[in-house]
Amino acid sequence: MNFSTRTNWDLAENDFAVAVRAARAAGTELLDLTVSNPTDCGFLYDTETLLKPLSQLEAMHYEPDPLGRTTARAAVAQYYRDAGADVAVERICLTTSTSEAYSFLFRLLCDPGDEVLIARPSYPLFDFIARLDDVRLVEYPLLYDYGWHIDLHALEQAITPRTRAIVVVHPNNPTGNFASEVERAALDELCARRDLALIVDEVFLDYPVEEIRPRSFVAGHSQALTFVLSGLSKVCGLPQMKVSWIAANGPDDAVARAMARMEVIADTFLSMNAPMQQALPHWLAGREELQQQIRTRMQTNLAVLDARLPGTQANRLVMQGGWTVVLRVPRTVKGRPFAEAALKQGVVVQPGEFYGLPEGRAVLSLLTPLPIWERGLAFLPID
Ligand SMILES: Cc1ncc(COP(=O)(O)O)c(C=O)c1O
């Protein structure tokens, strides 16, 4: 059987994943500092309240609306209004995941072989989505200098006649940097001037480590056609519900033309289901309860980490938000790469290379339950 070259993946697990699986299979108790599935991290969900809207009669009525039901989209508009940003319901499209939202946008903007610019380091999921949609990802660098910054010069150099869009993750995963107001203005000007779309992934926007929450890219008027992505995975800690959205910003005419085409893409799949759209307004309205727990966990874990690191061979890179933290660590410990050496001690951390970070970086999840975090950090081979 001939399959598409698009699916010619090397499905072999990497050595590190094999080693973690082998350790688990051998019954070793592992202190996993990488858990990022919020439903596995010991948070309290008010299950009864959350499941209630799913049993309402409206959930039994099929009323397909490609961009999503108006009441559900209005709830997303309210989410932005709560943060002081106005976005019209007509500019919102619901999707069943942020991954699907990326896929809609790649199909909207790109022909096969067209290019999309993406930061390095960043989240490895994009490679798969782009490949499935026949899009070529081209990297632009983030620089670390008292915090992470977009290398705007290198970004502009990376633009070719095939470039269709720039992706910015705000705050980025795993580096945790928000796009600054200066970067934001520069990106808007650049995209408008070069006729590129700006795709801004804000799934972690509600999780800054400081009190001040940076602005969404839907706030204010952008010159460039801008698509903001977010969803319940992170906003409500409900990845199993599979609800996300795209919210557009930019000149009226460009947005209207984009939304008309997006509606056809969405209509082709009609992947949103009625019960989730019925429940979305209730879940979004109740989001603070879980967000508070997550922010408290992040603050506590950062404080424990910061108390552990002085006098060790590791230090923490500056981050502003999101669920991950990056440590600078020794490249090797007794001849082994750091993450393997940690595994020998029973501690799981992610090698930074998974995200395009240089060697000698480890990525940890701030959602890790506190007892595991404390013990795992104690055993980390950094002394
Ligand atoms: C930056 C970023 N975007 C998107 C996603 C995927 O979100 P979803 O579950 O909505 O597809 C993730 C998941 O961790 C992520 O880190």
Please characterize this protein's 3D structure.
By secondary structure, this protein is of the alpha/beta class. The chain has two domains: 14-36 and 288-379, Aspartate Aminotransferase, domain 1; 60-285, 3-Layer(aba) Sandwich (Aspartate Aminotransferase, domain 2). Helix content is 37%, strand content 18%. The protein is built from 13 helices and 16 strands. It has helices spanning 15-25, 47-51, 70-82, 98-109, 125-132, 152-157, 181-194, 232-235, 252-269, 274-285, 287-308, 338-344, 370-379; strands spanning 31-32, 92-95, 115-120, 136-144, 148-150, 163-169, 197-201, 226-231, 244-249, 315-316, 324-328, 332-333, 336-337, 347-348, 350-351, 361-365. An eight-stranded mixed β-sheet has the order 2-9-8-7-6-3-4-5, with helices on both faces. Strand 3 (115-120), helix 5 and strand 4 form a beta-alpha-beta unit. Helix 11 packs parallel to helix 13. It is globular. The termini are far apart.
Distance between the termini: 54 Å
Q: Helix proportion of residues, in percent?
A: 25-40%
| CATH fold annotation of the largest domain | Aspartate Aminotransferase, domain 2
What composes the largest sheet?
8 strands, mixed
Form type: globular
Number of domains: 2
Number of helices: 13
Structural class: alpha/beta
CATH class of the largest domain: Alpha Beta
